[in-house]
Amino acid sequence: MKRYAHWINGRHQPAQDHYPVINPATEQVIGLAPEAARDEVDAAVTAARTAFERWSRTAPRERAAVLDRAADLLAARAKDLVPLLQAETGATMRVAATMQLPTAVERFRRYARGAIEPDTIPLAPLPVKASPLAAGGLLGAAAIRRPVGVVACITSYNFPVVNLAGKAAPALAMGNTVVAKPAPQDPLACLLLGDILQQAGLPDGVFNVVTGSGATAGEYLVGHRGVDMISFTGSTSVGKAIAESAGRSMKRTLMELGGKGAAIVLDDVTDGALKNVVGGVGSTWSFHCGQICTAPTRVLVHRALYEKVVTGLQRYAETLTIGDPVDNSTIIGPLISAAQRDRVESHIAGARDQGARIVTGGTRPDLKPGFYAAPTLIADVRPETAVAQEEVFGPVVVAIPFDTEDEAVEIANGTAYGLYDYVFSGDAGRAWRLAGRLRSGNVGINTVQRHPETPFGGFKESGVGRDGGSFGLHAYSELQSVVWPS
């Protein structure tokens, strides 16, 4: 059984204690992750603090070259990393091979280019009158993006390396240093990123990784005086606790939190286009077992099309193969843990008790070992019930009918979340206007595909700030104004 070590100041740092990382499909231990104590978190933050002065003053082209080489090295390690990612996340081999690693490579490559994007915004000179403060004259000025400092990157369990790459790459591109704390369920591949970045030429101390099974290491990292910014992806409840702690020392925060995506299906969708609706909403089941915050977990359908959509989704769900994620025929693998499976089942039971109709699924598949949940469609759900309000993070879709656009908007906006919504319509202009009424950071019109350069983040309790594309560079920088006499 391999014992992994923290990555601190350019070397593997053995830990006194370890905890088991479990394969969600086999329920077997696949590795022992280090359990961080306070002194190890201190060492990682100190290393990042010390390395900041040099790295922040490194030429942007040098930073770009390091990130580009890291992308090459990460891709070259696919043969080793993809099976590890598959085993610790429980993702199907299709998702592990096409999304878990390649997307991380793309993010390092994207922010290699980002490192050399202009960081200075010149401002037109302005004549300024004399005042008791200073003499008058013509003043020139510029706004310059500067690195924030030491960034703590606390990541989610669904796409561990992808999520870490999406934080660390833009942070490093802007000249920040990083202390990463991966999700406790699947940190092993993240621990290997240190070696890869070192081989790419990243100086010691610029990137560090510590792990832990509980909240202790993360809480200490968030409150650490040596940390300047917290970038977090995860649940809204944890995000609120992080924001409260970070606020005591006015740390910068970037929060990507929960979602309860609504897919609004208007009455002008043709029978032929309903296949697109079913496939889009069905991605909640077929893509990583619904463990994705952007999933369209609520389908709001005009009453004229409601039963057609429900029937189409039922048929779609019943074609999906549940089973061993390393089998190429499998579409739906396990959830990340027994606790998460129990949480999903509790939501389904609550919906049943409140009179909703379980159209398909709703019972635990007869598969052992593994933390499996069947793709579940729940119809005739009241918008105020828990299954329609709370993030389930599993293969569960709820269907809600509506009669008017105003009613659809009210239902869609009627949760605490506002991360990603969708509008399906035969009239793109109508869909565009409706999108403007949704309190959501992202809206897809007739697609569930994402554009990688758009700003990503949420309204309301779905988060604070935006990353993605050049907006990711903005997120990991501070604006400094410089003024001089012309």
From TrEMBL:
Residues 15-482 form the Aldehyde dehydrogenase domain. SUPFAM superfamilies: ALDH-like. The keyword Ion transport does not apply. Gene3D superfamilies: Aldehyde Dehydrogenase, Chain A, domain 1, Aldehyde Dehydrogenase, Chain A, domain 2. Keywords: Oxidoreductase. InterPro entries: Ald_DH/histidinol_DH, Ald_DH_C, Ald_DH_N, Aldehyde_DH_dom. It holds the Pfam family Aldedh. The keyword Cell wall biogenesis/degradation does not apply. PANTHER family: ALDEHYDE DEHYDROGENASE, ALDEHYDE DEHYDROGENASE-RELATED. Belongs to the aldehyde dehydrogenase family. This is Aldehyde dehydrogenase family protein. The lineage of its organism: Bacteria, Bacillati, Actinomycetota, Actinomycetes, Kitasatosporales.
